[in-house]
């Protein structure tokens, strides 16, 4: 009988404040969709970092005759055979840091350049002797770039030491910035949702103050009086959480798999899978249930004074 009464009161409360209930559902849905989206964005950035950082190389570019005439780092002339042997020998001694070393000749560099930038006007004016020889170094830990830079930067015959990770860091910095912006918007939406929940519960309690007064007089417990209001907020929040989960599933389906089909158009990006999305849904649903219920509980403690 008590459960039936509580359920009937929930239905009455939701219908009586239909507009505010709808506002709560929408605000909870949007804020939790942003919350889930920010978690998925973090997973995506971490996945991309693991994928790309594992492929980045440190390149030691060697001086050629053209560099000797124009680059201060090559003022002592083009790299010699002895200098190349010494560089390679020193790299061999750094086995704790270096995983693999590959050599690219000027002819190979020219061939690769033509394959990638053959349509560029500059490509027709370049000759193989203008290209630089280089050592491409695969590190065991991409964070150890500075060890290579310190050892070889400024050495005779070395034009420059370049780390591809620096380029990726700029990209990941941008993605992380966008993620934090989404989290800031999410936080504001959560505050709005909490304010709406508190106001909705108070309006509902005020509109039923006669019933709650009678219940107090007949000796109903505080929790029994509060339960319908708390569950109203929890149900509205849970509906919003369900909508948020739907947003995430639809976004994953249409943005990555179909519709925009980014997984097909951007083959170089290792996108997160469905498992990453599905593991976030229970957290979103739990948050959508507990957050409104707790907000309503603390609001009612002061408002009903029971």
Describe the overall structure:
This protein is α+β, with helices and mostly antiparallel strands and 306 residues long. The protein has 12 helices and 4 strands. The chain has helices spanning 2-16, 18-53, 65-70, 81-93, 106-117, 145-152, 164-207, 209-217, 222-257, 262-265, 274-278, 281-304, and strands spanning 58-62, 98-104, 134-139, 158-163. It has a 4-stranded antiparallel β-sheet. Helix 2 packs across helix 9.
Structure summary:
With 306 residues, the chain is an alpha+beta fold. It has 12 helices and 4 strands; from the N terminus they run H-H-E-H-H-E-H-E-H-E-H-H-H-H-H-H.
**Counting H and I runs of at least 4 residues, what is the number of helices?**
12
Give the low-confidence spans: none
Order of helices and strands: HHEHHEHEHEHHHHHH
How much strand?
Answer: 5-15%
Question: Rg to the nearest angstrom?
Answer: 32 Å
Largest sheet, strands/sense/barrel? 4 strands, antiparallel
Q: Outline, from the CA principal axes?
A: elongated
Termini gap = 22 Å
Total beta-strand segments: 4
Rounded mean pLDDT is 79
The structural class is alpha+beta
Enumerate the strands of the largest sheet in spatial order, edge to edge or round the barrel: 2-3-1-4
Helix % is: 55-70%
